[in-house]
Design brief:
- It holds the Pfam family CdhD.
- InterPro entries: 4Fe-4S_dom, Ac-CoA_synth_d_su_TIM-brl, ACDS_complex_subunit, AcylCoA_decarb/synth_gsu, Dihydropteroate_synth-like_sf.
- Keywords: 4Fe-4S, Cobalt, Iron, Iron-sulfur, Metal-binding.
- Helix content is 40%, strand content 17%.
- It is α/β, with parallel strands linked by helices and 445 residues long.
- The protein has 3 domains: 53 residues, Electron transport complex subunit B, putative Fe-S cluster (3-methyladenine DNA Glycosylase II, Chain A, domain 3, Orthogonal Bundle); 248 residues, TIM Barrel (Alpha-Beta Barrel); 119 residues, Rossmann fold (3-Layer(aba) Sandwich), CATH 3.40.50.11600.
- The radius of gyration is 27 Å and the shape is globular.
């Protein structure tokens, strides 16, 4: 059972030294109880306290790291069920399957396609994280050959999927230094798989049909000395998978049930290509640590990565661009000037439509703490003085021959005040960015 803040406080040095970064030992104890601090933050804690508090102060869902280098994938260590309670920390890993029984040409083509699944959205590059190499051939030598090819040809992290300990051992002789996720442990082979994971220091997935069986297997695997565990509930039923993921999360966070205090991996059932991405998006939201899909087309993967980007963006810290004057195309002193806010989604939407108009233009991103046009206006973060200051800071008067400013149609009410404040002629643009190409072609002279 989890200890209370006062129970933890009794085991701390009580010196209020502030070395942990908190004002008092009691404050540190309260944060330990809420899983918002780690025991290692206190340099003076006794060995006796460490032994008593080690388990109690551990995060409810263990952090598991897969791979090495820049594309290392971290899953787990979440503290809340709902993002508005705090935020989600470690984005769900997206993996794509690659079967070892494909012929050489098909295998290489699919591998290259997976490696190139990168997109840019609101100024941020997004891509998948893992390749799940499947031992569908049942041949250890074939699996090893393919593992070597993938290991040497991708920047992504790897999942090795096989129920054969012989195949797994052989493949890991080639790529153990990449710290892949070993997937294939179950009630029949958990002991041999645990020994392999322990020997190679790699994380291990354990699979079962029920949560009770999963809990039983994790205890056995922990007893064998493996602590980097990922849970996989086997099911082809979408409802069962979602219920299982939710129950695991609740058991770990609300009940502090340690046998299920691990991140999860989920496979999307085969089926309609569109439905597969819809299912994967649902698993990503609740509460898969890794989602494995068969989909490999850009039109499938980009929506899934977009969902992930939205869910794992801190709701209290909007994604924003630098407030400044941006140039779109080959601008000159006669180019139109538009302004919008520095909320990334707003700015890049406007930029895309300005590019579509094929009229070179300046876009002034006004600093509104990363909020959208209407949100900024309603919170008085966007007014005539803010716009005027942004224009002055950007030295528009030195770059533009004319004195015309196109403002968002949603804040047409500001037109007279901006005109009075800046002495520029104000043109009211469309309410929606999609109307900019037609507006600029017909209204800019």
């Amino acid at each position: 059972m989890a200890l209370t803040g006062l129970e933890i406080f009794k085991l701390l040095p009580k010196t209020n030294c502030k070395k942990c970064g908190r004002p008092t030992c009691l404050a540190f104890a309260m944060q330990l109880a809420q899983k918002k601090a780690e025991l290692k933050d206190c340099p003076d804690v006794s060995e006796e306290a460490k032994s008593k508090l080690g388990e109690a102060s551990a995060p409810p869902i263990k952090l598991v790291t897969i791979g090495t280098g820049e594309k290392q994938v971290k899953i787990g260590e979440e503290n809340v069920l709902f993002r508005h309670d705090e935020k989600f920390y470690n984005p769900t890993g997206v993996a794509i399957t690659l079967s070892d029984d494909l012929d050489d040409k098909a295998f290489t083509e699919r591998l290259n396609k997976i490696n190139n699944l990168k997109f840019t959205r609101v100024g941020t590059e997004i891509e998948i994280d893992l390749i799940a190499l499947q031992n569908n051939s049942g041949d250890a030598s074939k699996f090893t050959e393919r593992a070597k090819e993938v290991s040497g040809s991708t920047h992504l992290s790897m999942i090795l999927e096989s129920k054969s300990d012989d195949s797994m051992k052989a493949a890991l002789e080639i790529c153990a230094d990449k710290k892949p996720l070993i997937h294939g442990a179950n009630a029949e082979n958990w002991e041999s798989m645990a020994n392999i994971a322990k020997e190679k220091n790699c994380p291990l997935t354990v699979s079962a049909h029920t949560l009770e069986d999963l809990a039983d297997l994790t205890e056995k695997i922990k007893g064998a000395g493996v602590t980097k565990i990922v849970l996989n509930q086997i099911s082809e039923n979408i409802k069962e998978i979602l219920q299982g993921l939710t129950k695991i999360r609740r058991a770990a966070l609300k009940k502090a049930f340690r046998p299920l205090g691990f991140p999860t991996l989920t496979f999307t059932p085969n089926g309609d290509p569109c439905q597969e991405i819809a299912n994967a998006s649902a698993f990503l939201a609740k509460y898969a640590g890794i989602v494995v899909v068969n989909a490999c087309e850009p039109w499938q993967i980009m929506p899934l990565l977009t969902v992930r980007q939205n869910i794992f963006t801190d709701p209290q810290k909007p994604v924003q661009v630098e407030p400044k004057l941006y140039e779109v195309g080959q601008v000159d002193e006669n180019s139109p000037v538009l302004f919008t806010t520095n909320f990334s989604l707003t700015y890049y939407t406007v930029e895309g439509e300005v590019e579509a108009s094929r009229i070179p233009a300046y876009i002034l991103a006004v600093g509104t703490e990363g909020t959208s046009v209407l949100t900024a206006y309603s919170g008085d973060k966007l007014n005539e003085k803010v716009v005027g200051k942004a224009m002055t800071d950007a030295k528009l008067g030195e770059k533009i021959k004319h004195k015309k400013l196109i403002i968002p149609g949603l804040v047409a009410v500001l037109s007279a005040k901006i005109q009075e404040e800046t002495k520029w002629e104000v043109l009211v643009g469309p309410k929606e960015a999609s109307g900019l190409p037609a507006y600029m072609k017909t209204n800019w002279h």
